[in-house]
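Our collaborator T.R. sent over the components below with a one-line note: 'Predict the complex.' Nothing else. No constraints on interfaces, no templates requested, no preferences about which chain binds where. So this is a plain run: every listed entity goes in together, and whatever single assembly comes back becomes the starting point for the next discussion.
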Amino acid sequence: MSTATTTTQVDAEDLRRRVRDLLAEHDPKTTDRLEFLRARFDAGLAWVHYPVGLGGLDAPRALQAVVDAELEAAGAPDNDPRRIGIGLGMAAPTILRFGTPEQHQRFLRPLWTGEEVWCQLFSEPGAGSDLAAAATRAVRDGDEWVVTGQKVWTSTAHTARWGILLARTDPDVPKHRGLSYFVCDMTAPGVEVRPLRQITGEAEFNEVFLSEVRLPDTLRLGEVGEGWKVAQTTLMNERVAIGGNAIPREGGMVGVVAQTWRERPELRTPELHQRLLRLWVEAEVMRLAGERLRQQLAAGHPGPEGSAMKLAFARLNQAISGLEVELLGEEGLRYDDWTMRRPEIVDFLGRNAGYRYLRAKGNSIEGGTSEILRNIIAERVLGLPAEPRVDKDVPWKDLPR
Amino acid sequence: MTDLLYSEVEEDLRASVRGLLADRSDPATVLARVETDQPYDLDLWRTLATDLGVAGLHVPEELGGQGASTRETAVVLEELGRAVAPVPFLGSAVLATSALLGCDTAAAEVAALASGERRGALAVPLSAAPSAPFPDTVRVDAEGRLSGRVGTVADAAVAELLVVPAAGPDGPELRAVDMPSDGVTVSGIVGLDLTRGIADVTFDGAASRRLAGPDVAGTALTNALITAAGLLASEQLGVAQWCLDTTVAYVKERHQFGRPVGSFQALKHRLADLWLDLVGARAAARYAADALATSSVDVPVAVAVAASHCSSVAVKAAEECIQLHGGIGMTWEHPAHLFLKRAKSTESALGTPGRHRAALATLVDLPAPVA
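Returned assembly:
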């Protein structure tokens, strides 16, 4: 991040002083939550590595922990990051990198405070792993774009004010070159959000139907035809966000099963015992691998292990949650409730064994399928050649679908 | 949290060992040697032990060692595994040295092994698991004479000092026998592993001296086996790394159907999965080496996790290496079989994966069902 707008490098002591000033002027006990969050943003203490004036101080990203700890100790409210993860993790870095100064000013503050929720309009029924094949059309009409198409797997679309949208602006060039990136006004006429019910019975996600939605050109992020490049920034940040935090031993799905094993001796069988021990070892090994990755990042040597962690996490979650249903025997035949609902927050370890088993199936599909991740490892880490492609130099409109 | 990375010093050490092995012990050289009457490369061993000083890395300086730790020993083992180098490192620098470090009266022996002046071996079957009871196949009488037999002892054929667990009149002891010695027969075995010698050792009234009595012998032996099992994981990581690297290089070169076979997803996905297994194996092996270096309370769990995981990963890597090389992988001429034989043999060394998982059941409170 550039430090051109600051004259001195911000350090931890400086941040503590700024937090004290913020707390002195806006006592969390007597200040309205939103008012406090806005004041925190304006003080540059929202995300300290962002530029001055946009919620940050051009400070090293690692110093954010200092601010968070001080504010938590003071009992200050946070911005409920789990509720606005797509905005914080994907939209914000993309807006920061490709947005105009006007877009920075308009979007980042309410995004961070949670006043405006964001969603991601990327995947389509016909463009999943092959995201660059997206068929949603955006046609220029004066200072506006007219958008028509269907997006899918859109979490928080029903609460979102804005969406980050990938749409085809030129069908006559090869697929990667004919995309543009927009901010979609989710309140605009022609935007219809329908819940997408999953195998768990819940609808965490939505389908979004866009019918001649008119978006002003001022909502475009990046140049026309550069949508794929802009989307790479979004997707890179998604992969950083997945599988990032330190966990204690037995911190994940394996802990749930281990506890059942300890508390319910009547359920134990020799065959399940062997499988449980294997999975326990695998879970511990991947926990250590995650820890090693974090140490590499901290030492300034980002390793390629990041893409591996999600692959391992999916495989383990599925195997362990499957074993849990078997272990529970008769109880594993029950399910708590198939009623369609829209959960606010998704907990892979929540509800019951059947839910955990079913929800884990999504782990190898969402955010890049395990097959695509294996391709990434094979090509970018091991340097193996790509499969011959038949779609790279063909105009998008001529591709078989 | 434990440091799971490699320090600069460790990377320098790796570079020296790797350079030496590339120069003196490439796979073709090793393959040519295994069927001669000199399967061990004792010149290479002397260079490693005396010039590079790697035999006493985890021995304190006051006992004649380098005063480093098992972290550095583990790095050496990774490189020796990557080259399936035919040197008695596991038997002498790991098993015998670790056992001697647990004895009260073994300072001279430790120093001799640490400096590379002598080579040692620990007279237990290579398959001995840390959880196994103290062996009773060798007995020591009141005059210190040994009798009995131990099979499949690693690196015994070139040992100048045998450290022998023996049942004494008052309980378990560790005894020292200088080799060669009257009353001791060491018979080399044709082993599955072509690059690490094993031998049957028979004692028939051989003279010995006491290294540890009943109060410490059991602990010394168990700790030596735990240390060795934890460090063997690093050797297995090295074996797996050679297999992965060699296979990846091969599938980029080998063309069938007009393309490099490495461009087929069926093969790419298998290699991606194998790479992921190695990411885990490296973390587990580093964690075990570090736990041993710091005498962490978590040593038993760390070792059981690393030993069970890395054993299986090495075997899988070697098996994939053979398969993905196709016909050439099945030939004697290609060195892949040396790695398969090492991997499969070490899977049974110092406790099978299943035995280590059984130990974990107790350590982490996941008890077996009551029959």
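Summary for T.R.: The first strand of chain A starts at residue 118 and ends at 121.
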